[in-house]
Amino acid sequence: MLGTGATCLATVLGAGTVFLFKKDMSAGLQRAFLGFAAGVMIAASVWSLLIPAMEMAEEQGQSALLAAGGGFVLGGVFLMLLDRLLPHLHIGSDEPEGLPAHLKRTTMVVLAVTLHNIPEGMAVGLAFAVAARDGGAAALPGAVALAIGMGLQNFPEGAAISLPLRGQGVSRGKAFVCGALSGVVEPVFGLLTVLAAGSVAGMMPWVLAFAAGAMIYVVVEELIPEAHLGEHSHVGTGSVMLGFLVMMLLDVALG
Known about the structure:
This protein is mostly helical.
């Protein structure tokens, strides 16, 4: 609760920037925020999820490659299905995705961000669950590092929802609520994933890799295209590398 609650709070604080700024977020700043989030999620998938999944699988006598590879693929497929089924609309896009639904534009924008907050909540929840299983002394700093990294990229994500909505004419209060609600899914899915993984012996390595696959899907499907890296954006590319570096250093230093 504390780990996923902290990352949710970072999203809420980021959404609160709508009360401080009068103008919409510039394209360059939004590109930098999205690139940073992509870099953090890539590094977290490797250091905080896939490597621990392989180590844990070996400890349990399982095939490390099967657990990590199988979970990774299942996580990507799970997010792909959600992407196809859940009605959502990305900021800056006019065409909604998912199944047809008569929902308000703001609701569909919130659902779009909620999609990529799901694997983040799963990752943080699982990291703290592993720390609890191991007694906390060895794995807790790594879980804290992951929560810090996710919080760092959740703050600009909250702003990246509320500020553009405000720029589209949505009231400050409603823009803030929309940004804040997108982060609520993290503690919900974090707790659900931990309960599911803890109920079946030997499932934790698979679920860790599952969260990694879901996060990488989000990076490739959403964050990188929205950061316009296909346009040779030096800002976006540099932000991805910075996010990767920050998360890697956090995990190595604390974990």
